[in-house]
Design brief:
The chain contains 15 helices and 8 strands. By secondary structure, the protein is of the alpha/beta class. The termini are far apart.
Length: 340
């Protein structure tokens, strides 16, 4: 029997929150899993399965679902926020009265806030108080939810400006199948996790058009270059993007079938309207769609060129055909690989 490690709260019962609950419950944590809707919480309590996300996986008995944020946060050493970007601010505002200064807070979603371009750790700090700025951590890496729920070995990175908190989060979230590294570059880790979703949409387009491995390798390489370019311009470290939340996550999400963002690109390449694709996916969210808007806003403000992200934006929102977007990228003015 696994030893009791204490209580941890997972805020958000989507795919990622459910997967983390399964992994941490198996590893000895008592998990308070917050679900927005009573029907989901009730089903988890009754059947030990989430009826909408990862329903093939049984949740451990140590996972308790609730719709009460105060109940979820009560007694938890660490709060892991796994709420999609579009709903994070609202949930954090409701959560704020229930969070104490001695609780660690981890941002585990990957995206940028629509309309503001703010990173999700910034949104959390906005809502939970300025004392949380620099005290929160970010979790990111090549962590497809279904594989984490299945216990398939993977690794991630916990980024925090304070080494003691990073070590605490690393120790808390590490399991035999989930190895956690630390990195002080919060900005770089968070941007890597968010921006790679844009490139994953492009990879889906590539596969949907029937292109080969050469095409995808070129797309991923150049995509990583422009993600790094924007990150460095905003103050991140270039080497962070060669790690788990950059190259590692990019490989996982561009690979294919299990990535929601890849699915969006693939279906667009088949000629389906974006609204139809997103409606089919609901209630699951492809963060890369809105992140594309926010990223290009940041790139414009920073004076950074992002041709692949621009092409993805044109396919998503400007009715440019995927084939035309590819032609435009392939016939851009020639340049050196290392040119900025």
């Amino acid at each position: 029997m696994t030893a009791d490690r204490g209580t941890i709260a997972i805020i958000g019962a989507g795919s990622w929150g459910t997967a983390l609950s399964i992994a941490l419950g198996r590893a000895g944590w008592r998990v308070n899993l917050w679900a927005r809707r009573a029907a989901v919480a009730d089903a988890i309590g009754r059947d030990k399965r989430n009826p909408e996300y990862l329903s093939a996986f049984e949740l451990p008995d140590s996972v308790t679902a609730t719709t009460d944020l105060g109940e979820a946060a009560s007694g938890a050493a660490i709060l892991v926020l796994a709420v999609p970007s579009r709903g994070l601010r609202e949930v954090c505002e409701q959560l704020a009265p229930h969070v104490s200064d001695d609780q660690g807070v981890v941002s585990a979603a990957k995206g940028l806030e629509h309309g503001t371009g703010r990173r999700l750790s910034q949104v959390i700090a906005d809502c939970l108080g300025s004392h949380r700025t620099g005290r929160g951590a970010v979790l990111s890496g090549p962590n497809l939810a279904a594989e984490v729920a299945a216990g398939i070995a993977t690794a991630s990175v916990a980024a925090c400006a304070q080494a003691d908190l990073a070590a605490d989060v690393q120790a808390a979230l590490s399991t035999p199948g989930f190895r956690v590294y630390t990195n002080p570059d919060v900005l770089g880790v968070e941007l890597g996790g968010a921006l790679k979703n844009i490139i994953a949409i492009g990879a889906g387009v590539s596969d949907g058009l029937g292109f080969g491995d050469n095409t995808k390798a070129a797309l991923m390489s150049r995509g990583l270059a422009e993600i790094t370019r924007l990150g460095v311009a905003l103050g991140a470290r270039a080497e962070t993007f060669r790690g788990m939340s950059g190259m590692g996550d990019l490989i996982a999400t561009c690979a294919g079938r299990k990535s929601r963002n890849h699915f969006v690109g693939h279906e667009l390449a088949r000629g389906r309207p974006l609204k139809d694709v997103l409606d089919q996916m609901s209630p699951q969210v492809a963060e890369g769609v809105e992140t594309t808007r926010a990223a290009l806003q940041l790139a414009s403000e920073a004076g950074v060129e992002m041709p692949i992200a621009t092409a993805v934006y044109q396919v998503l929102f400007e009715e440019v055909s995927p084939a035309e977007a590819v032609r435009s990228l392939m016939t851009r003015t020639q340049r050196g690989e290392l040119d900025e």
